[in-house]
Amino acid sequence: MRIATYNVNGVNGRLPVLLRWLNETQPDVACLQELKAPQENFPREAIAEAGYNAVWHGQKSWNGVAILSKHDIVETGRGLPGDPTDEQSRYIEAEVKGITIGCLYLPNGNPAPGPKFDYKLQWFDRLITYADGLVKSDKPVIITGDYNVMPTEIDVYKPERWVDDALFRPETRAAFHKLLGQGWTDAVRTLYPNEVIYTFWDYFRNAYGRNAGLRIDHFLLSPQLKEKLQKAGVDKHVRGWEKTSDHAPVWIELK
Length: 255
Fold this sequence. Notes:
With 255 residues, the protein is an alpha+beta fold.
């Protein structure tokens, strides 16, 4: 079973890229972030024609998350609990073939310090609280998406340039490691503990050509899935396509 995550950076504007990638790689499940489309403008017909059922949580102009599945899909959650005033569409959850899959788009947080960074850390705290319940449920769970955090120095090109950035500040990395400490497995790092692997390359300064990237899109697996993890990778070449996202799709395979 192949499960992928992809920050599409605008689902309608980059629909040809998304459909091309789905057709090429045929993941069983694809979690999307940064739809940048209101609920009614999600391209449901095109996604269905590509062979996928879908649940999505849209928002005008910003954010937005979706889960596509070749199999039956049942939505189990929408919006991250913990703050009833939070209107940003950053989390959706569904069950596919007995696996609970949470798709998230964690706040960027820049500039830091400041209100946006405070919101990022508050959102992270809510995620940690909610994830603790998931990991203790004894169910197979995946939480995947754009976490907007580079956990370690190997996850960022020239880390010394990022020390004050919200994606790499000590508070952000500490929150991610606190999350991992609940018993989650960082799938890509587990299979490739020492390799330089990036999932995002800025549009500026030929970042993709120079491989000056960041690893900010992650798969966290509950203990029930750790031993089922067989493969993981990044479809880096998709970042080189015309009119593509600044992220590349990331995927895992479970037996």
